[in-house]
């Protein structure tokens, strides 16, 4: 990941073998195996001494972010769903191997109290909080407005939007100048696909919330930014997207392939670090060259 090379051939390209999973999905059932930086990401102390919470930290982008944060010197609290315990324990082991503290916190973030408990557990374990990376998300597909169900929209907003408010409110009293909040939008928040209206509106909302909260917290010296991934090779895809889209996954990007979770970690590290001291309210697109506007 540090050797100059052609990014179009750096990681696997489609076609991919057909594969489907039940949500929330397991990285070990993916073919080819995704790269979360387990072997590739090297830290350089850019987050030394920081204390982080990462949601969705068992798999995919959140797993890559947790690994990178630890290797950059941060203690990391890992939020994930209870059924993802085994994958989360692997990440906790990698955090500890990096010489940092980890905290395992299973729970459904659709439940308001879980959000506050997560923050309190992290502050209790680490003695503070400097970085809140809200990466968790869910992505049901609905082909037609004729099939729209209120429960589906309630679920998407509860999982993707409410935790922004709940986690940030809980974290607020602990955040000092220099702290950073990082959200995870999507290209879908800017250029929605027809089958992803519920998800896309939530992802647009995340980018919008990021701008609002950046203005609200600026006077306290707290920066708020986001990352908007394009197609990334994570269990979210086989869990929610039909096989005909898996086989050609990422093909539509100018780079001709999906991103690997490890390729999303660097912007999350930059935005958390003091090097991003003048960046706030921004959502950085990481899309393999697909324009977001
Ligand atoms: P992933 O399935 O590996 O990660 C999503 C995680 O969200 C799950 O591991 C789970 O722990 C967590 N989660 C879901 N619902 C939850 C709930 N109710 N309570 C607590 N945790 C919950 O997939 P990923 O692709 O790494 O997803 C991470 C983020 O990236 C999501 O916000 C997703 O929308 C976003 N994203 C992904 C892609 C992509 O192509 N994979 C593209 C753009 C944006
Ligand atoms: Mg997962």
From TrEMBL:
Composition skew (Low complexity), residue ranges: 1-11
Biased composition (Basic and acidic residues): 25-39
Lineage: superkingdom: Bacteria
One Pfam family in the UniProt entry: adh_short_C2
Keyword set includes Oxidoreductase: yes
Entry's transmembrane regions: none
PROSITE patterns according to UniProt: ADH_SHORT
Region (Disordered): 1-43
Keywords (A to Z) from UniProt: Oxidoreductase
UniProt KW Oxidoreductase keyword: yes
InterPro entries: NAD(P)-bd_dom_sf, Sc_DH/Rdtase_CS, SDR_fam
Family from the record: Belongs to the short-chain dehydrogenases/reductases (SDR) family.
Record-linked PANTHER family: NADPH-DEPENDENT ALDEHYDE REDUCTASE 1, CHLOROPLASTIC, NADPH-DEPENDENT ALDEHYDE REDUCTASE-LIKE PROTEIN, CHLOROPLASTIC-RELATED
The protein's name in its UniProt record: SDR family oxidoreductase
Lineage of producing organism: Bacteria, Bacillati, Actinomycetota, Actinomycetes, Micrococcales
